[in-house]
Amino acid sequence: MPKYSDLTDADLAALYAYPRGPVLRANMVTSADGAASLDGASAGLSSAADRHVFALLRTLADVILVGAGTARTERYAPVRIRELWRHLREHRTPTPPIAVITGRLDLDLTSPLFTSAPPDAQTMIITTSRVAVPEGVDVIVAGEETVDLTQAIQALHSRGYQHILAEGGPSILGELTSTGLLDELCLTIGPLLAGPGAPRIVTGPPAPSPVPLSLAHVLEAEGFLLCRYRKTS
Hints:
Elements: H1 9-15, E1 23-31, H2 48-60, E2 63-67, H3 68-73, E3 98-101, H4 112-115, E4 124-127, E5 138-141, H5 149-158, E6 163-166, H6 170-178, E7 184-190, E8 213-221, E9 224-231
Parallel strand pairs: 1-6, 1-7, 2-3, 2-6, 3-4, 4-5
Antiparallel strand pairs: 7-9, 8-9
């Protein structure tokens, strides 16, 4: 098993490079017993290596997709240039925009996530036609009663966002899985037993069938396993 510490940043960038064409990749972290969070947040499951790869995945993405619940819990803010691997953002905006999925507009539109986003990477809201969104907010309408993620992804593609990074939460990942939209899963497994009660990285109604994956690579970093899976055809 390759060790994370033996790889250069160039090696990591090559390992996580997107294949050609549109790709929807999710990035999640979990404990050894499958917990998606500790005390409601994922930070306690992470590590320095995981955060380094997290920055790389954001750098490689054209847009970041996140559910409203995760945006609130994790206190999302616009991506900052200093967080990224700048040399890998050539010919694109300096930072990727964030697209927030919400069926009820239960978001603080005066928070930095919206007010501090740069003009070339404005935060977007993906919602339904029944939700009234104030003027000045970039909106993608996808569905009438509930957000249709298939329509949402198509809308992002039509805007030129081919490489989409989904950062959760578990219900969004569950829907991406059940609809067959997910192409890749980057999963960090931490050496920790969280115990009963913690949520899994995927929640929601049962998927029509299991989604087979192939392991593209796994790296070991001080007990943490950094895995990249691809959906098999």
